[in-house]
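Hi D.,

Good news: the full-assembly prediction came through. Inputs first.
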Amino acid sequence: MTDQYDVVVVGGGPAGYPAAIRAAQLGFKTACIDAWLNKDNTAAFGGTCLNAGCIPSKALLESSELWHRMQHEAAAHGIGVGELKLDLAKMQARKTAVSRGLTGGIKQLFAANKVTGLEGFGKLLGDGKVEFTSHKGEKQVLSAKTIVIATGSSPVNLKIAPFDNESIVDSWGALDFTEVPQRLGIIGAGVIGVELGSVWSRLGAKTVILEALPNFLPMVDAQIAKEAMRHLTKQGLDIRLGAKVSTAKVTGTKTKAVEVEYEMGGEKKTEVFDKLIVAVGRRPNTDGLNAKEIGVAFDERGFVKVDANYKTNVPGIYAIGDVIGGAMLAHKAIEEGVALAEQLHGEHTQVNYNAIPSVVYTAPEIAWTGLSEEQAKAKGYEVKIGTGPFAANGRAKAMEAAQGTIKIIADAKTDRILGVHMVGPYVSELLAEAVLALEFAATCEDIALTMHGHPTLSENFHEAVLSVDGRAIHAVNKAKK
Ligand code: FAD
Ligand code: NAD
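Then the structure:
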């Protein structure tokens, strides 16, 4: 028997579940199929982000940051804390509870919005049909005018350092360590490398990150990336740039270790770690989906090819989120899901890919949107630059967190803000103002004339914008044209 729907979404992560909810809100009869199984065999909607990505990593970042601050900052506030005791099992249980609370919430949202949530695997059959296989193995065929591929991505498995899920692990494994490794190695100083490196380094692991590229976080403005690297290095993260790993092999039987060989600056080197995290990017999930077999076109890296309206080359089949490539971020996936549902309803919603917020949740945080100085110049803009150091910000000082800089990249001809790149306390939260500025095509003058509360961290955004034209009040102006 075939169940008839208007929309069937395959994948219930940040791309799929909002697409399903919005489609149902707009009156479409909608089902969302999701295959996620946690390590304890419980099914959960929410995909990588809620189960093994954004949320559990932020929970551990928060706990480890609190641990670090208690150790290193409490005394400066006049608080004696005595001997601190780490209960990692409890920290991990809190992390899991945070995730499970949110994934359980999706089921409630599905019920409230009348989305049929189906826990199991989805396979495209062609002719508007999807085969659903439940986790118990029961099969059902769904048919729909619109099918949405939202199957997400998985960690890249390096041939030279294959996962054994014990000593050499991916990001999910690294979120679940039951002991703090004494010696932790990480391949890749990308977002995952520095976030999870921060977690375990704060909790006591001697952490070395091996990065193949010569630059740290090349997508970030070079001045801000350089300052961020300085702060992270000072905290104890040993980030080795230009390190080309040739092999990683697990040695020992009872007590295992990982021996990593790499080349750096023309020299061959070896390091031995208790655990190795491989975080060198993610690849699209299309195994078993049968998409290629029914004619869906992929690009050369295996991402599903779509047009500006998320249409694949097969009529009635759309794709959104990590599986189509671009920025692999949960909020980009959410926006695509919502935009697609609204487009199916005849609306003209669009995602603005020029104003994507990006955050690395280290301490200090790194956050950016729009163009870096280098990118703006490469595009031919005549730029003007402003900077706001947190050292001059009253709130940051009161928080014992006066580290970092906000950098504004503006068009010298039109005064429009082209990009905002920052390192500093809670810059993830300040980023919303920067994104809004880009979205509304704000000029420096618009922000300069906007009153910011005192004392707040956001005042430093105002100061950075003022400094673009040499009129900052609380810092020495270094505006350049
Ligand atoms: P996914 O979240 O991967 O969801 C896809 C879902 O589809 C999964 O549940 C999968 O099981 C299911 N699926 C796959 N194939 C099938 C099938 N055939 N049938 C049924 N179901 C299927 N992004 C941020 O914006 N902020 C962060 O702080 C952040 N932190 C991260 C930390 C880590 C450690 C990691 C790994 C990622 C992080 N990300 C973060 C990235 C973010 O998780 C992804 O960009 C986001 O989850 C993509 O959403 P998606 O729905 O496209 O894919
Ligand atoms: P990434 O692309 O951010 O970083 C991978 C890094 O590994 C790069 O710097 C790359 O040069 C390096 N690398 C690749 N091959 C290497 C090799 N053989 N040896 C040494 N270095 C090598 O990927 P990621 O850190 O795995 O994260 C995956 C995705 O998840 C990213 O797209 C990211 O946006 C997303 N994510 C986002 C957040 C966040 O928004 N805070 C957090 C975690 C993950």
